[in-house]
Amino acid sequence: MARSKVIVTRQLFDEAQRLLDAKKDELEVVQWPSEKPCDRSWLLEHAKGATGILVMLSDKVDEELLDAAGSQLKVIASFSVGTDHVDRGALKSRNIRLGYTPTCLTDAVADLTIMLILMAQRRGGESISMVRNGEWPQKPWHPLLMTGPQIRGSTVGFLGFGRIAQATLKRLLPFGIKKALYLTSTPGKPVKEDHFGLVQEAAIPIESATGADQLAKESDVVIVGCALTPSTKHLVSTDFFNKMKKLAVVVNIARGPVIDTDALVRALDEEQIFGAGLDVIENEPNIQADHPILKQPRCVLVPHIGSATIETREQMATESVKNVFAGLTGAAMVNEAEL
Amino acid sequence: MARSKVIVTRQLFDEAQRLLDAKKDELEVVQWPSEKPCDRSWLLEHAKGATGILVMLSDKVDEELLDAAGSQLKVIASFSVGTDHVDRGALKSRNIRLGYTPTCLTDAVADLTIMLILMAQRRGGESISMVRNGEWPQKPWHPLLMTGPQIRGSTVGFLGFGRIAQATLKRLLPFGIKKALYLTSTPGKPVKEDHFGLVQEAAIPIESATGADQLAKESDVVIVGCALTPSTKHLVSTDFFNKMKKLAVVVNIARGPVIDTDALVRALDEEQIFGAGLDVIENEPNIQADHPILKQPRCVLVPHIGSATIETREQMATESVKNVFAGLTGAAMVNEAEL
């Protein structure tokens, strides 16, 4: 019997690669050989005859690719939490299963969210620049030097209150926050899933906001953690910033376009808010050195590293390989997307 | 009756200044008028006849100042947690009381410690620089781009385990750390004060290390939070770094000289450790732009901003004023140092 063909659009590492290598007798594994993102033309050419394809966020899964592969294709396994790059409808109509890795990066992203909140409040970017530029010797100690707002006693507002937002709230509790507000697609209604039992058990109030207005007005820290949809695009714009407190900060760990970047730059310029911490931004990664957001001393921007821990990326790779195998044999995946 | 004279070596703010201003009928308040640190010559000249002096960390309190003030001096109130700038023996022999502000900055410093741990692990400094330098467009997504170690499952080692270290541990628990080790001046012995009941109640082991060796070998995160004494100076040096794990990070929120800076630079150069986060450093603030530590991409250095929150600095100012008043009237201080 011919071996099943599996395409993998990256070199993997450690356990994930070992799992793949161990199946070399049963599977014909064809891996993109370079460290750069996989060429589309290479993928279309090699997909022919594949039963499974393991893709990255940067590989588009559409009719063209599915046609190139052929009708024997059983499974797409995406090394990602998001599936915006996948045409789910096309998979459904062809009865192809979709695996992804939505849960294993919760801790890594929640950790980074805490880092960004603290950097926005405590002027992390400004402080590092001051020292790197050799300005410290000329700025002797002063009682108000580099002071920022303190998180104790804060109201923290979550735009989107899924697993990552709730994991962030769990970490924030011992910092002494006073209250949490969250806004979901059903304002004023209790959140569907209480992933860590916080809503039930936490000693502070955790309340569903009546709308974006209430959340903007009352929050000292605003955390953007919602999916990008037509109704969340530019949800945080001039109107929202105008309602925020002058000492409040905003953090985005979701998708860039939820925040209107031009409006954010203006809000920072006009000291409408205190600071910002961004893991994502509109038009990433095409952010040139002269981008206006990079001129804002009170804004910290990191290059979409939310899930970038060694442990999480290893686990994402391993789960992706397991999802491909499950797709080939008809077994249960670690995480399968509903189509 | 003549009004008591009080010298204040800074302009204060908000409630602290209001408290002072409200006593203008009873007290002759003489305040250093500039925003720069107080001139020594101004202080010596104006101290004459003072009953109380409110000083900053940058004002030396020694025999010369006490002589200049005269025998009516009853109280020194220092706007600081440390009292290295005060000759305690001289105060004791003259029966002058010393107030300070050791407790109100615990939260602010513990918050900053968490920020520095996460920045050291998650490559915060490197990430910011990459984006600011316009390198993001040329560094497309890669599964191992900017990855660092994850805190979940870590053993966290504390050099010094006082109030701030314990407040840091309290914040770290929901990040999923596995174990805490601490080293105090009595290795292997339980810590004297369990400020937040963690040692008793936490779900993870919190153990006294047998020595610096064990702590260096077993920790994934090392937090320097001890006082600077002859025995802690350069406690973290080449020998310590050699024993650390390659993926471990070190954070210093105590006093610069506990870490041997040259050894740290070598350890980072030779990838003996993964990264570092420093709020303090030897010879601060005299850190020029060409200092070797600033060439280390995996080291984040901020300008001693541990307690730099608006709330904490206001509280330090207010407590300092209250300590002066208490010293004048013989009442109890918010915090009085034992001499």
From the structure above, extract its key features.
homodimer; alpha/beta; Rossmann fold; 2 domains; seven-stranded parallel β-sheet; five-stranded parallel β-sheet
Descriptive account of the structure:
The structure is a homodimer of 339-residue chains. With 339 residues, chain A is an alpha/beta fold. The first copy, chain A, has two domains: 4-104 and 311-329, 3-Layer(aba) Sandwich (Rossmann fold); 106-301, NAD(P)-binding Rossmann-like Domain (Rossmann fold, 3-Layer(aba) Sandwich). Chain A is 32% helix and 15% strand. The first copy, chain A, contains twelve helices and twelve strands. In chain A, the strands form two sheets. In chain A, strands 8-7-6-9-10-11-12 form a seven-stranded parallel beta sheet, sandwiched between helices. In chain A, helix 2 packs parallel to helix 3 (63-69) and helix 5 (106-121) packs across helix 7 (163-172). The first copy, chain A, is globular. Chain A starts with a strand and ends in a 10-residue tail after the last helix. The mean pLDDT of chain A is 96. The interface between A and B is large, with 76 and 76 residues.
